[in-house]
Amino acid sequence: MKPPPFSYHRGRTVEHAAELLRELGPSARLLAGGQSLLPMLNLRLAEPAHLVDLGSAPGLDAIRRDGDLLVVGATARQAAVENSADVRSLVPLLAEAVEHVAHPPIRHRGTVVGSIAHASAVAELPCAALALDAQLTLLSADGVRTVGAEDFFTGAFTTSARADEIVAQVAFPVTGPGTGQAWSEFSLRRGNFPVAGAGVSITVADGEIVDVAIAICGVSDRPVRARAAEAALLGSRPDPETVAAAAAASVAELTPRGAGDLAAHILPVVAAPVPAWGYRASVAKSQVRRAVTTALTRAGGVR
Amino acid sequence: MTRTTDNQADVPAPTAPHKDMKWIGRSVKRVEDPKLLRGLGRYIDDVVLPGMLHAVVLRSPHAHARIVSVDAERARRAPGVVAVLTGPEAAEQFGPLPDSGPAPDKHVWRVLAADKVHYVGEGVAVVVAENRYQAEDARALIDVTYDVLDPIVDPIAAAEDTGNLVHEALGTNVAYERTFTFGEVARDFADADLVVRDRLRWGRQTAHPLDTTAAIGDYDAGTGEMVVHTNSISMTWLAFGAAVALGIPSNKLDLRPYISGGSFGSKQFCWRSTVTAAMMSKITGRPVKYVEDRLDYQLNGDQHGSDRYYDVELALMRDGTFRSLKIDCVDDYGAYIQFGVGSHGNALAQVTGPYRITSTEYRVRAVLTNKTQQGAYRGFGADAGNWALERIVDKAAAELDLDPADIRRRNLIPPDAFPYHIPSGNMYDSGNYEPVLDHALQRFDYDGWRRKQEAMRAEGRKIGIGVVTANERSVYGATEFWFWFDDKDVPVKTTSTPEGVSMTVDTVGAVTVTLYSTPFWGNSSDTVAAMIAAEEFDVDPADVSVVHHGTKGGLPAAGPGGSRLTVMLAGAITGASKKIKDKLRRIAAHDMEVDEADLEWVDGGYQVRGATDSRRGIADLAMLAYLVKTALPDGEESGLAADFVYDHPHLTMPKPDRSDLGSFYPCVGHACHLVAVEVDEETGSVDILDYVAVHDSGTLVNPRSYDGQIVGGTAQGIGTALAEEMTYDAGGNPLVGTFWDYLIPTALDVPEVNFGHEETPSPITAHGIKGGGEAGRLMAPGALSAAIDDALRDHGVRVTELPATPERIVGWLQGQGG
Ligand SMILES: Cc1cc2nc3c(=O)[nH]c(=O)nc-3n(C[C@H](O)[C@H](O)[C@H](O)COP(=O)(O)OP(=O)(O)OC[C@H]3O[C@@H](n4cnc5c(N)ncnc54)[C@H](O)[C@@H]3O)c2cc1C
């Protein structure tokens, strides 16, 4: 389990890193925390000729509020986000989701943005970003563009970012009054990727749901929004039956997938004994119900 | 010491625990720990020899395929590569690996596949390079042409198949088949009020030590001496097997032992890594290190556990008393069968568990398939056997509407029945089972938990309680590897499985113990050796020096396995100590000019009975022994050294017709585990709320490290019950390779285990010690299965397949079997 030969390049700034990616071409890969990329290299599931390390580029690890947005820079570690009081109060769903990522040693190296850029269909953070309608800033030698989370995830481990684009930062809308958020997941062993998980943000005004976003991971080739469930909840005065019906709707709108597909969504190459779709879907349903219930309680809207 | 006779009258009556010991029975910190905790342990991968090369193995991507050609030219020219050896080349230069299966010449097992690959992961070539990176790069350049064959995956179908064979020379995929009948099975079944039947499935698992199996071969072309540094085989008694495979005289091979981050049976033998490193050193003339990576270990490590399909029948009376037991087992051994059906010997050693059952039928079919072969995993077949028995006992309890603790109590072998012979012939040396059950019930607060359970269930929670009473045989006699065969031309003899030690007391009285088998595998051999020696010589265990000798020139030693090491080392060290203490007594008597019979050993020295002022301490006597020849009795040699080989404490011959297999696994412990769980109906997850384990392994040596065995074994049992599974798809492709998908419980998943101990000494071992190395793993799967059943009883769910993964549990709840 040793990586194939590669050459290592250090990006002095994020712009310099972008120039290197342009220069070195498609055989170059960006290196952030390395917690997904290095295992892939060691298993020879990826064989990039060049690694461009973003780690020492200055200023990229910021976690700061910018108006109605909380901005997380490309090299901000998962542990830093987890321990940030700002994140906890301004984007509680992100704080709760990141706690479920792996174990502390991995969160001390892995980055939030790297996980989102890696775009695993079972990972917590891409799913949370989708539920939160996060905005991604893509930077390349050509300049900068912004993409919404929904347009960013295009398939298993694939995104709308080009190979020479860097996700320089991800901006999450901060919560307002009456909003409750929750993450719920089930994994086969603590610290593992979930079988399925759900991220929920709900705003309640006068006992009525006025805004709701639900995203699910583990049931498709990418995180997905549960639009039917959202529609079932929006405008309702929620009780447990409504919530259960919405959870059922969240799964009914999904397309069942075969084991081979699921394996490919979840691991880059090798087959995995992934739980079958039916089981994943039933776990997803329960996690949607649990996350919605918790979010409602936090929004002060449960009865 | 060995009793190899049919006469069982020579087993003494059980004794009460002796409480007059200084060290035995006291919790001491392990003498191994200071070096391990400071990172000074020197594991095999820490060893770097000058000029050392690194080997990697090219593994087969196919489950079943003929090797048409192996072209290694590109790899040989790659940077840093020193040698490449292909399977066909290796078969010309090196012998097969040692195989104690039936008809080994018909399923020849080699370090690299020669003409056919038999499972995904089987080695096809070895690359040796200046570093591991280069070796892995070059491995990718080897071109193998395969003629892919239909994979043989399902053992039930494979058993019937005569066309598609794993090994053509064998003519069948069934490597071994036999039905044993012990006692009046037909009569007992006819007399029984009812018969309970079950069909059970025990999934394939693997032990996962922290470090994989590894070796460094270091060949001296000048002398022809081969030294292999290894963390696996280093037991003297069978080391010659590696010499034969390597084509080296046995007395020119030295296997040097290294500590390891665990074995749990998985490092038992492991010829492959030793032979890989050694053969490549012989070829290159330089030291070669071969360290399995986790994929090598999982796919090509020869240590998968039992993979069984059971049909079980229990005949019993209305009052819940058991009569007879029938077991029909298909075991999927994978592509080879290195230990024969020895793992069924383990199951047969305690086939009827702690219960009075007067007859037993046991049918075993060992089937070969295109999977990695089985090896040993903590329990070695008795793990599955215990589970199957406890499952049928629970089913019987449910059918008779008896409390699961009650039905067990009714059937426990009573204390006055020991030594007790079970139907298969094995002897249980001693036991007192009911106090263990009572202790556990009380520690768990069984009645209290039952009340709590009712209250919690009333709130809609799925709470279940499981109880098992189960045995743990220890100290194997290798007879169990041969008694399967009763060919008239091959007379079966009992096989002692000896363990030797050497001891010295030096000029100033300091004690050294030399061991001839594997050091620390997680099992604290050094602490045991130090404690037993300390007990004999009245010194502090921390002051006893423990040395590990290589196999070359060593005394017979079989190492850890079958929970034997503590018992065997205690016997050997007690024996060697006695020789030295006898000599000290002769010297003391001579020096004091008194009769030997007038001397007594007190506090590390001899004195005339009752006369403390006459004392000669060990240091004074040692000084005489080494330096003052004139002070020694006539004919007494200088120095204080003794060898002692402790043979198996109790073996008896199998009957010629195998209606009785003799006694081969006689030191039998007992345990009761109780667990309360909560099952989440939606996700199928099982939360452990409370866990109690009470064990009786005879006299306790070091309770502190024994508790560690119980927690570790229980953790593995939890993995076995709930999560760990080595799965294959219909094409024979392993679906599990790394810890991503092979789910070992972590500290976060294992509950606090509440321990209790009882002590019923063995009448046949030094100090009454029994082995306890499989503690926990033999009990937890049954206890958890029962608790899940109980939690889901309203849904009619029964756990009949392990692991009971969350996905399976949800499937059972949805009415898909179970
Ligand atoms: C044992 C273990 C358990 C884990 N468990 C979980 C878990 O439960 N849940 C979970 O979600 N994750 C888990 N992970 C993965 C972990 O969260 C990773 O840290 C994360 O997926 C990737 O972040 P990284 O910073 O380490 O990125 P890297 O590994 O460095 O990069 C990953 C990929 O993203 C690309 N990339 C990284 N940053 C950027 C960027 N700014 N712009 C464009 N592309 C970029 C890289 O080129 C690479 O292709 C686990 C990892 C391990 C080792």
TrEMBL record, chain A:
Keyword line: FAD, Flavoprotein, Oxidoreductase
Residue stretches making up the FAD-binding PCMH-type domain: 1-177
Source organism superkingdom: Bacteria
UniProt-listed Pfam families: CO_deh_flav_C (PF03450), FAD_binding_5 (PF00941)
Keyword Metal-binding found: no
GO MF annotation list: FAD binding; oxidoreductase activity
Keyword Oxidoreductase applies: yes
Name listed for the protein in its UniProt record: Carbon monoxide dehydrogenase
From TrEMBL, chain B:
SUPFAM superfamilies, per database record: CO dehydrogenase molybdoprotein N-domain-like, Molybdenum cofactor-binding domain
Residues annotated as domain Aldehyde oxidase/xanthine dehydrogenase a/b hammerhead: 38-150
Keyword terms: Molybdenum, Oxidoreductase
Gene3D superfamilies assigned: Aldehyde oxidase/xanthine dehydrogenase, a/b hammerhead (3.90.1170.50), Aldehyde oxidase/xanthine dehydrogenase, molybdopterin binding domain (3.30.365.10)
Keyword Oxidoreductase part of the UniProt annotation: yes
Pfam (any one): Ald_Xan_dh_C
GO MF, any single term: oxidoreductase activity
InterPro entries on file: Ald_Oxase/Xan_DH_a/b, Ald_Oxase/Xan_DH_a/b_sf, Ald_Oxase/xanthine_DH-like, AldOxase/xan_DH_MoCoBD1, AldOxase/xan_DH_MoCoBD2, AldOxase/xan_DH_Mopterin-bd_sf
UniProt name for this protein: Aldehyde dehydrogenase
